[in-house]
Amino acid sequence: MGEHVLSMIRDSLPVLNVGTRERIKTLKKRDDEIDILHNEIVLYLHRLSSLDLLDPQPEQLYRYLTTANALENVADVVKEGIVRDSKKRLALSLEISQSTKDYITNVYKEVYLAGQTTLQAIEEENPDLAQQVLDSRPHVNGLQARARSHLSERLTNESPQHLSLYKIESSTIENFGQIYNLFVDVCELWSKDIKNKETVDAAGAG
């Protein structure tokens, strides 16, 4: 499921910038595939929860369920936000300027990296990797702030077309910010639980 979500993020900005109607449709369809995977995971975890579980298994189930929900929410942001804005860009024949693309791309790259690092932290149960995502917050917030400032400076032409483009650009920045925050939430959960597990293991070994 995680790789499917990463592929949606990877393709989201190219589709927003220059995607054809077919590419937009393909990106949207991936959300349906992720919904199916999410439902299967939730049903599987629900079956496990009906068994006689021992500590820390209930907490582990909760962690996996929360992670699956967060990944499904990431896909929804791409579908409801970036896919929607891609359709508007195409319908109105709008083109995002290169300078604005550069600012948005900086945010996009950090969000994609956060997704990769989050999934790796989960796979390896590595709290240091999860902490890398948490520590990147000031940098990512700064990139978002600079992108917003850039858009505000460019908002001098109040033509309907320019305002429509501004709404798409600003919406994209906020959508990527929302995706990033979902990865941060997952990393906070896993970082805490992995460290707790290491503490318990160390105590047992002693």
Concise synopsis of the structure shown:
The chain is built from 7 helices and no strands. It is mainly alpha-helical. α1 packs parallel to α3, α3 (57-91) packs antiparallel against α7 (160-205) and α4 (98-124) runs parallel beside α7 (160-205).
Keywords:
mainly alpha
How would you explain this protein's 3D organization?
There is one protein chain. With 206 residues, the protein is an all-alpha fold. Helices cover 88% and strands 0% of the residues. The protein has seven helices and no strands. The longest helix has 46 residues. It is globular and about 65 Å long. The two termini are 38 Å apart. About 2% of the residues have low confidence.
Mass-distribution shape: globular
Radius of gyration: 19 Å
Largest sheet: none
What's the average pLDDT? 90
Number of strands: 0
Strand content: under 5%
Please tally the helical runs, counting DSSP H or I stretches of 4 or more residues: 7
Layout of secondary structure:
Elements: H1 2-18, H2 21-49, H3 57-91, H4 98-124, H5 127-135, H6 137-154, H7 160-205
Helix pairs in contact: 1-2, 1-3, 1-4, 2-3, 3-7, 4-5, 4-6, 4-7, 5-7, 6-7
